[in-house]
Automatic annotation (TrEMBL):
Bias (Acidic residues) ranges: 526-554, 753-762
Compositionally biased residues, Basic residues: 10-22
Principal localisation: nucleus
Record field: compositional bias (Basic and acidic residues): 678-714, 771-789
Protein name stated in the entry: ATP-dependent RNA helicase
Notes on the domains: The Q motif is unique to and characteristic of the DEAD box family of RNA helicases and controls ATP binding and hydrolysis.
Location within or outside the cell: Nucleus, Nucleolus
Motif Q motif, residue numbers: 54-82
Biological-process GO terms, alphabetical: rRNA processing
Enzyme class: hydrolase
Length: 802
């Protein structure tokens, strides 16, 4: 007992000592972590980046970040990363600009992780970092990179983009420490989601800020900045620096440090060194021929083809898929649903040889590995868009080529705009011997498939509309487009109607006529001045230029300009319309006709002439009084009754079984029959007797129906008991499943189950009724003769029992 009692406290003591050691170890780790964070912060503040900084391990960053970078195979830094990360780690605002494919994503993701790590950010602290991206695809790419380098951190990260369920995002939003979002969806959550609070935000990142502003998010971005605290760090990155980006930096950044911003006029300041740039000049109706020939000669390459509108992308994708070029074809544009867009993005990333038809939605920030060619068959709206498009190839240290299609009317203006940005694009020529015409194939597709024809029409209108809406008219000249030939090249039998094209041509003609009038007016003024010096004032000086009297006349008033300050009411606009007498001649012809449609001038012929023939009418035509009283109208409505009173009842004949005719309503020997029945009293008795017989028949029918229903119910009960008995005994009844794989598990409604014998029915469930509706037995019997036959004795016995 003593030994046992003495050994009891030993395990408890060991557990107590182990718990104490664990607490001391946790405390020591917390102290060590705190000391490490303080040491990291001191190193970051005192860090001066050397000129040969190239490794991530040389940066003053935490161990979890280094392990994440090593796991994701990020070892060597790029120029923008080596310059911006040390500045960002010090907590300063950064205005970064670097050429496409230079690694700007890591340049702001590493400071985001380090900032939250040093502040010991936890789940209860809420939103600490916000990253705003212009497109959904770029936001998904940023989120994937964040997940790849941050698995050893304990932060929660979320992705908020359009096209997904708002309610599902709202439920998780309050628990996120890092949020990657698009501007529109983020503002929607800020306005609608309960519990979403950005008051503790520590760092804000704006990626591709110029594109955010170009896409019409100026007001959205201003509203977002109003929701965010001012005491935050802001990182703004873009491949190109525009005036709008500078204005945004002035509003949202405090003493920003410009990183990687070069002179805009410097040669190739935004283009990778490994990129070869070319352009060709081709007619509008030959673009698709050249594109098809280019794809057929580069089947082992990875190509991105940029177009100006979603409808063009869809038309070219659908038609080229039907023509089978021999390489996988993929399309990506803003009209696709979010899931489809992600699938197309992933599919093109995984392929080694493919062609992607895309709009400018794929021109910003997306990192497609191994792209060999970037083909722009539609000219970009400006030089910045050109830079971002060709930036999808020659990324980091890889090589790539760019090809730009220009129309003859676009060559001078586009090359001048590119030279202004310091871009030298080499002109090359097309080999006509290797160019394959596909106009006939497109015409065949449009003829066979109405949907392809509809897509061609929409592609035609969308392209011409994009040219019409572009601001730089020195490049995009709508009036010089060969629209008829362009419609034929798409396979259309005719040119679709374009309203804005007519307005543009009319506007140019109007401007040209105004210039001619101005030149003539100047010449007239010079001649009148010369004449006035010799002869004195002429009569023309008594009136002003618009035809009104001059101020010297007392009774005349000068006419006001239509664009003056005078307020014009709707009545003024109505009576001052032009071409008000455009139908006056036609109206005068109408009123000059006589009562029979003949004009005064017999020699003039119309397209359609109506001739009326004279009909002989009786001398006395009854006139209808339009103001007749209500009683006359009632008499008019009872015309059928008056006809019966005048002509008697209908004399329609019917035929009996022997073929003898009878009137529809007749009573043979009515008086004789009445005398036989004993007069009126006899008729009443006959009616009572007939009613009693009918009641008896109905009672018998009712008894038979109830007996039959009772028998049916008993039979149903008996079959149910037999099924239960078979189920308990393990005997398998008739199979209700499908006889074959084509039946889908349902019984055919037209057939009953096969019986086990001739006299007895199977013990399974009753067969399903046919889909045709059956009448109840009672209603069926009412249609047959109810003579007391067959069941007369049964029915009478049942009535006696009652």
């Amino acid at each position: 007992m003593s030994e046992a009692s003495g050994s009891k406290p030993r395990p408890a003591k060991r557990a107590k000592d182990g718990k104490k050691k664990a607490l001391n170890g946790a405390k020591q780790r917390r102290l060590t972590e705190k000391q490490q964070i303080e040491a990291l912060e001191r190193q970051a503040m005192a860090f001066e980046a050397p000129s040969d900084l190239s490794q991530f391990t040389n940066l003053p960053i935490s161990e979890p970040t280094k392990r994440g970078l090593k796991k994701a195979s990020f070892v060597k830094m790029t120029d923008i990363q080596a310059k911006s990360i040390p500045v960002s780690l010090k907590g300063k605002d950064v205005l970064g600009a670097a050429r496409t494919g230079s690694g700007k994503t890591l340049a702001f993701l590493i400071p985001v992780l380090e900032m939250l790590y040093r502040k010991k950010w936890g789940p209860m602290d809420g939103l600490g970092a916000l990253i705003v991206s212009p497109t959904r695809e770029l936001a998904v790419q940023i989120f994937d990179v964040l997940r790849s380098i941050g698995p050893f951190h304990s932060f929660s990260a979320g992705l908020v983009i359009g096209g997904k369920n708002l309610k599902d995002e709202s439920e998780r939003l309050a628990r996120m420490n890092i949020l990657v979002a698009t501007p529109g969806r983020l503002l929607q959550h800020m306005d609608q989601t309960v519990g979403f609070d950005a008051a503790n935000l520590q760092i804000l990142v704006l990626d591709e800020a110029d594109r955010i502003l170009d896409m019409g998010f100026q007001k959205t971005l201003a509203a977002l900045l109003a929701h965010l605290p001012k005491s935050r760090q802001t990182l703004l990155f873009s491949a190109t620096q525009t005036k709008s980006v500078t204005d945004l930096a002035r509003l949202s950044l405090k003493d920003p440090v410009p990183v990687g911003v070069k002179d805009e006029n410097a040669s190739n300041s935004y283009i990778p060194d490994n990129l070869e740039q070319h352009y060709i000049v081709t007619d509008l109706d030959k673009k698709l021929d050249v594109l098809w020939s280019f794809i057929k000669t580069h089947l082992q390459a990875k190509i991105i083809v940029f177009m100006s509108s979603c409808k063009q992308v869809r038309f070219v994708f659908e038609t080229f898929c039907k023509m089978h070029p021999g390489v996988p074809l993929i399309h990506l544009h803003g009209k696709l649903k979010q899931q489809a867009r992600l699938e197309m993005y992933t599919k093109f990333t995984a392929h080694s040889h493919a062609v992607l038809f895309a709009t400018d939605i794929a021109a910003r920030g997306l990192d497609f590995p191994g792209v060999d060619w970037v083909v722009q068959i539609d000219a970009p709206e400006d030089a910045e868009t050109y830079i971002h498009r060709v930036g999808r190839t020659a990324r980091y240290e890889s090589h790539g080529k760019g090809l730009l299609f220009l129309l003859p009317s676009e060559e001078d203006g586009m090359t001048a705009a590119l030279k202004k940005k310091g871009l030298e694009v080499n002109k090359i020529k097309i080999r006509q011997s290797k160019t394959q015409a596909i106009e006939n194939q497109l015409q065949k597709l449009c003829f066979e498939d109405p949907e392809i024809k509809y897509l061609a029409q929409r592609a035609f209108v969308s392209y011409t509309r994009s040219i019409y809406l572009h601001k730089d008219k020195s490049i995009f000249k709508l009036a010089e487009l060969p629209v008829d030939r362009f419609a034929e090249s798409l396979g259309l039998p005719g040119t679709p109607k374009i309203k804005f094209f007519g307005r543009e041509v009319a506007k140019q003609k109007k401007n040209a006529s105004r210039e001619v009038q101005a030149v003539q007016a100047k010449s007239d003024e010079s001649e009148s001045e010369a004449a006035s010096e010799d002869e004195g004032p002429s009569d023309s000086e008594a009136e002003s230029d618009d035809g009104s009297a001059s101020d010297g006349d007392e009774g005349a008033q000068p006419a006001k300009d239509s664009k003056g300050d005078a307020v014009r009411t709707k009545y003024d606009r109505m009576f001052q319309r032009k071409n008000q007498n455009i139908l006056s001649d036609h109206y005068s012809k109408l009123i000059d006709r006589d009562s029979f449609g003949n004009e005064d001038d017999p020699d003039e012929e119309d397209f359609i002439t109506l001739k009326r023939a004279d009909h002989e009418l009786p001398d006395s035509i009854p006139q209808i009084d339009e103001h007749a009283d209500l009683s006359k109208r009632k008499l008019k409505l009872s015309r059928a009754k008056r006809a019966i009173a005048k002509n008697g009842v209908n004399s329609k004949l019917i035929f009996d079984d022997e073929g003898k005719p009878h009137q529809l309503y007749e009573l043979e020997d009515g008086a004789e029959w009445l005398e036989d029945k004993g007069g009126l009293e006899g008729v009443k008795q006959e009616g009572q007797r007939f009613a009693a017989e009918e009641r008896g028949k109905m009672q018998i029918t009712d008894v038979l129906d109830k007996a039959q229903a009772r028998e049916r119910k008993q039979e149903k009960k008996r079959k149910r008991k037999e099924r239960e008995k078979m189920a308990t005994s393990g005997t398998q009844g008739p199979m209700l499943g499908p006889a074959s794989d084509d039946d889908d598990g349902y019984m055919s409604p037209e057939f009953d189950l096969p019986s086990e014998s001739e006299d007895d029915e199977p013990a399974g469930p009753p067969p399903k009724r046919s889909w045709a509706r059956e009448e109840p037995p009672s209603k069926k019997r009412k249609t047959v003769d109810h003579g007391l036959e067959g069941d007369e004795e049964l029915a009478l016995s049942l009535l006696r029992r009652r």
